Amino acid sequence: MMVHPADSTLPGALADATERALAEAEIRLPRDVLAALERAAAVERDEIARSELATILENIALAEERQVPICQDTGVPVVYLTLPPDIPFTPSIFEGVREGVRRATARIPLRPNVVDPITRRNTGDNTGVGMPAVHVTPGDRLTVTVLPKGAGSENASRIGMLLPSQASGIPRFVAETMLIAGGRPCPPVILGVGIGGTFDTVAALAKEALLLPVDTMDDYEQEICDAVNTLGIGPMGLGGDTTALSVKVKRADCHTASLPVAVNVQCWACRRATVEVQR
Amino acid sequence: MTDLTTPLGDEVLSLRAGDRVTLSGAIYTARDEAHLRMMEEGIPFDPKGAVVYHCGPVVQNGRLVVAGPTTSARMNTLTGFLIDAGVRALIGKGGMEPEVVEQLRGRAVYLALTGGCAALAADRMRLSGVYFENLGMAEAVWAIQIDRLPLTVGIDAHGGDLFRTVREKAKAQFHQRFNNR
Fold this sequence. Notes:
The complex is a heterodimer.
Chain A: E1 2-3, H1 10-27, H2 31-43, H3 47-66, E2 76-83, H4 91-107, E3 133-138, E4 143-149, H5 151-154, E5 158-162, H6 170-181, E6 189-197, H7 199-209, H8 219-229, E7 244-254, E8 259-266, E9 273-277
Helix pairs in contact in A: 1-4, 2-3, 6-8
Chain B: E1 2-5, E2 20-29, H1 32-41, E3 51-53, E4 58-60, E5 63-66, H2 80-84, E6 89-92, H3 98-104, E7 109-112, H4 118-123, E8 125-131, E9 141-155, H5 162-178
Parallel strand pairs in B: 1-2, 2-3, 3-6, 6-7
Antiparallel strand pairs in B: 2-9, 4-5, 7-9, 8-9
């Protein structure tokens, strides 16, 4: 989606783009994710699982028709920006995004989910200290990508600092993550897997993997996905063939003495949208 | 498919894990904070035959915008007093621990609603009141009228637990695939 901002200042344009991207992501499931769900519904053999998948597909259509969020856990926004060379990287970039989140919260509306971690006091507008998380990379164009992340699936995510000799154990670690999670993260899930890097970057890689199209998998991703699906957890943990819709892997090189692995669990509502700011 | 209407009575005792049902009538949302508040100050609705829904909806101008189920496991240690008071059914997602399965035995059931299906859920629901509103939108107790909400019996009143059956199978599959290498 490309937009001509109503507000021509940079923070204004970013606020506008962030708000639009959130509205798109919250209401309309990306077509690749919808296609993966439809494919799963067509081949699922378990009766309860089939009815769960039918309910999910009905819900997706209804959200789009009524222009309401797909899920009441509208998540916390994770934001990815690309900045072209002529845009200065200043604090006003972050302020623009935060303003967009505040507007989206009031207008769509989104559930205010951001709280103080200890007192649990709600900030009321989905912004706060360090929230939303904003990741900036250089690019040709000015784009805003949002990934609203619900807590049910985020809470089931795991990081493991495996031994360098355990590379063949990565599929086991990923499957074990779903074995522990069961029905809690709202399967069928999409699993973002980060491999390599450091303790912090591996988690970022796992989350970035969720931005990749889910309708293709390489052999390694398919192997992990098949392993997860043999568990038979099924939609909502009620049993069935469809536990994971897709597994996506992102890699980085790492220290010779370590093998960081992260699994970012994403519920079937893999909400994401990108808006390019036309200048 | 069995059609249930609140207040619920002994009809819930004949349900079995895996059965599909519809539910109509009054339900009450409650998440972590609402459970804690009800323990301190009492249950603000008549709990006899009542249904508690693990949900934190999005409400705008007195209207439910979306209202899907939240993860029930967070309420594992907070549920006993509701069943003791006469609550006959819980609605949520993901199932609950053996402790709750025992509390439900001979008294109540756990009904699974498809997680994330908040637009669909809200379509079958109408807001009728609110308690503990100062807990905030997600944590307040909302009274909701529902019309033929489709549900799956996840845990029955005889110790039958679909989630546990699936979990045990998953564990066996996992060990078969990964531990013999």
